[in-house]
Amino acid sequence: MRLTFLGHAAFLLESKDIAIVIDPFLTGNPVAPEGLDIKADFILVSHGHGDHFGDVLRLAKESDAP
């Protein structure tokens, strides 16, 4: 299992079978890696502030993740 810090409160948790994105504020986040291509199986959001919810809709559409 691998846990990757994506900046602010965003994390990517990966195992060999699943990828979970937590609080995906990536666009406009100066700490987030550029050109990051995430295919999430699940997206978790702690609360609805923009700096936690940021890229949820885009990632959900691209990954078909709940």
Q: How many β-strand runs?
A: 4
The helix fraction, in percent, is 10-25%
Through-space gap between termini: 21 Å
Summarize model confidence as the mean pLDDT.
92
Q: Strand arrangement, largest sheet?
A: 1-2-3-4
Q: Give the assembly state of these chains.
A: single chain
Q: Describe the biggest sheet?
A: 4 strands, mixed
Offer a concise description of the structure:
This protein is of the alpha+beta class. It has helices at residues 50-53, 56-63, and strands at residues 2-7, 10-14, 19-22, 42-44.
Would you mind describing this structure in some detail?
The protein has about 70 residues and is of the alpha+beta class. The chain has one domain. The chain has 2 helices and 4 strands, in the order E-E-E-E-H-H. The protein has a 4-stranded mixed beta sheet, with helices on one face. Strand 1 and strand 2 form a beta hairpin. The two termini are about 20 Å apart. The model has no long low-confidence stretch (mean pLDDT about 90).
Labels describing this entry:
66 residues, alpha+beta, four-stranded mixed sheet, 2 helices
Architecture blueprint of SSEs:
Blueprint: E1 2-7, E2 10-14, E3 19-22, E4 42-44, H1 50-53, H2 56-63
Parallel strand pairs: 3-4
Antiparallel strand pairs: 1-2, 2-3
